[in-house]
Task: structure prediction
Amino acid sequence: MTHLRLASYNLRGFHDDRRAAARVVRAIGPDVLCVQEVPRWFARGRVAEFARTCGLSWAGPLRGSGGTAIFTSDRISVLRGERQRLPLTRETEWRGYAWAVLRAPSGRPFAVASVHLTLQGQARLPEMRRVLGRLEKAGAPAALAGDLNESPGGPAWTLASGSLRQVSPAAPTFTARTPRRTIDGIFAGPEFVSLPHDAVPLERADLVAATDHLPIWADVDLPS
Result:
């Protein structure tokens, strides 16, 4: 068995306190961090620097990812990383997702996608279908994490938790100051063994200063 900590965090375009966000990430100590709303334009250096400040690595790319990215710890090897655009909706910005095939310390490959679904409710289900289809083609145990912009019981959330299963806590994630809605989730395939949630003491001041979402994480075992 290989123990892994998977996490997800919407960073709101670095419009808030990046140093506070980095402190939050370091306290969580993820092996894989799926991020959303990183800056999209001329921002590769800033995104890579933020990953390093968190004690993580980022191999890119960024263009076409819809502001999503996947950071990894030094326990994880990146075998392949890509980004994919999602169909344009009535929103004024392109959505996309980052996905990667990674290698666990045991040597077993697994696939991960970082997603940020549209605000257009009718478009989220086909977006989720597309992401899950890409993960299925990876031919490896799969996990998905991100900001779904809908709560449990919504169509995209239901599809994700049926194809995979929710491994993150069912707790409100938005807003960070007054969390009332659960719109961020982590989902993993049956190969991953879900472990009890390990609470991490996080400074409320940092959580509020960092971004408008709360981070989420899940501990899993991946059999060799």
The chain has a mean pLDDT of 94.
